[in-house]
Amino acid sequence: MDDLAAAVADGAGPARLRALLDAELDRGARELGQKRSGYEEPVLVAAGPTERALRAAAPAPPELRADPDTVNERTWLLVAALVGALVEVGGTGDVRAGALDGHLVLEVPGDPDDAELVPLAFETHVAGVDRLRARALALPERVLADAGDLREPIGADHPLAGLPNAVLTPHIASAGRRTRDAMAALAVDNLLAMAAGERPPAPVVWEGRVVA
Question: Which pTM value belongs to this model?
Answer without folding.
Answer: 0.73
